[in-house]
Amino acid sequence: MTSKKVIEVFYDVVSPYSWLGFEVMCRYRHVWNIELKLRPAFLGGIMQGAGNKPPGLVPNKFMYMMKDLTRSSEYFGVPLQKPSDPFEAMFQKGSLSAMRFVTAVQEREKGGDKQVEQVSRELWRRIWTEDKDITEPASLAEAAMKAGLSDSDIEEALKLYTSKEIKDKLKNATQDALNHGAFGFPMVVCHINGKPEMFFGSDRFELMAHCIGEKWLGPQPNKSAAKL
Amino acid sequence: MTSKKVIEVFYDVVSPYSWLGFEVMCRYRHVWNIELKLRPAFLGGIMQGAGNKPPGLVPNKFMYMMKDLTRSSEYFGVPLQKPSDPFEAMFQKGSLSAMRFVTAVQEREKGGDKQVEQVSRELWRRIWTEDKDITEPASLAEAAMKAGLSDSDIEEALKLYTSKEIKDKLKNATQDALNHGAFGFPMVVCHINGKPEMFFGSDRFELMAHCIGEKWLGPQPNKSAAKL
After folding, report:
1. A72, A183, A210 ranked by CB distance to B207: nearest
2. A41 in Cβ contact with A105 (< 8 Å)
3. What pLDDT shows up at residue B54?
4. Helix spans in chain A (H)
5. Angle at A130 between CA A128 and CA A136, to 5 degrees
6. Do A53 and B53 make contact, defined as CB atoms within 8 angstroms?
7. Most buried among A11, A101, A143, B188, using CB within 10 Å?
8. Is the preceding omega at residue A40 within 30 degrees of 0, hence cis?
9. Average pLDDT score over chain B
10. pLDDT of B21 strictly over 60
């Protein structure tokens, strides 16, 4: 029996490509011989730290992204829908409080990452499917409730997420990503023979599979596997 | 018998990702039911026209690109090697004369695109494998010679490539790409039921195959096919 390869996925719920990458990695944790580590981090801090600009600021790129997301949504089986005002949602409102909340959920969760997985997914669903707010405490609570957290869990997470401890934890995760060379999200880091191999975006899975010696079965491996 | 889908690939030999995309499309022209149209164009004009900045100007992005190109080179079976001074090669020397020369070769070629394919490949090989110049007339002639053009063909192309006719032809191809929404290269435009579908980069082939109803067999389809 070979030991599992550790794979970290750095993401932010403001980023639609992060959602694609996140779902693919969550599906493959049951297909490949890997140990997946969810690494919620802050994309705004990455862009600033790397001196990068959001791709959506170039008009042709923005139009392409929206088209590409529509096509990818169907192909990946992830219900992406453009918010009515993507600029407001992505750049003005942003995701700092949402990612602090996810970090608080992760901090409190013991023995697994089911809660952090589900809460992240419900936040993506709010902003990228339902065109809803993800900045207000009530929004965070609603996402957590849909994710199946108990009332007391939600209450504790809401107390915790503005604490210095959580702010620092999110900063550190963001800095870890920058140290791996991040300039955007999603970023996947595969630890292969003690060496980190970084993959940016949600379009390098085929190459990633090749690098870790696994087989790529498309973004919906269970669907594909059933078809084979 | 269904009619072949027309696919245009817009590229510039200064762009290493264009080389990957170009080779993949040249391989798949014999695998998929498509009619491939090679569209040499000028990346500098695309970046200016779209108001985009080269990705290599963000340091983390540049480092990732170099790493990603090394991995992709092996996976795609395309001999990419970083030039000793990538910034000089890509941004200072650039590709305007090289792309005019390719355009002149295309203008003169009758009954196919073998010459334009081979000359493009030899220019990529010069800049992206052998770290050689692609701006001087002697460099262009050498690439064309390796591509199998006759002395008289080379002489004629060298006369033609600085003409207004060729300059305009390259400008028009670049404008066509911008009209399709380009913001970088490679850009592949698939004409599906009379509607153009644009794909940017060399990492959307799996999705492209899905959209045109063909099967993706990896970047080296003949190798994969042999393995199957």
Report:
1. A72
2. no
3. 85
4. 16-28, 43-50, 59-76, 86-87, 96-108, 114-128, 137-146, 151-160, 164-179, 205-212, 221-227
5. 85
6. yes
7. A101
8. no
9. 94
10. yes
Q: pLDDT tens digit string along A176-203?
A: 999 999 999 999 999 998 899 999 999 9
Q: What is the ipTM of this complex?
A: 0.90
The one-letter code for the residue type at B38 is L
B188 by DSSP, 3-state: which?
strand
Q: What is the pLDDT of residues B134-184, one digit of tens each?
A: 999 999 999 999 999 999 999 999 999 999 999 999 999 999 999 999 999
Q: Which residues of B touch A (CB under 8 A)?
A: 50-53, 58-61, 63-64, 67-68, 71-72, 75, 178, 181-183, 198, 200-201, 203-204, 206-207, 210-211, 218
Q: Do B58 and A51 touch (CB under 8 A)?
A: yes
Answer left, alpha or beta for residue B77, where phi above 0 means left and psi between -120 and 50 means alpha: left
Q: Which of B67, B199, B205, B207 to mutate to test the interface with A (most CBs of A within 10 A)?
A: B207
Measured between CB atoms, which of A183, A201, A211 is closest to B71?
A: A211
| Relative orientation angle of helices A16-28 and A59-76, to the nearest 10 degrees | 30
Measured CA to CA, the distance from residue A174 to residue A44 in angstroms comes to 9
Q: Beta strands A34-40 and A5-11: pairing type?
A: parallel
Identify the H or E element spanning B174. Answer: helix B164-179
Between chains, do B68 and A178 touch, taking CB under 8 Å as contact?
Answer: no
Checking if the pLDDT of B228 tops 50, the result is no
Q: What pLDDT is attached to residue A224?
A: 62
Q: How far is A211 from chain B (nearest CA, A)?
A: 8
Give me A37's structure tokens.
Answer: 């580590």
pLDDT of A3: 82
CB distance B166 to B100 below 8 Å: yes
Residues on chain A touching B207 (C-beta within 8 angstroms): 71-72, 75
Q: Which pTM was predicted?
A: 0.93
**β-strand partners of B40:** B11
State which residues of chain A have pLDDT below 50: 227-228
Q: Which amino acid is at B179?
A: N
Q: What is the C-alpha to C-alpha distance for residues A193 and A5, in angstroms, rounded to an integer?
A: 8
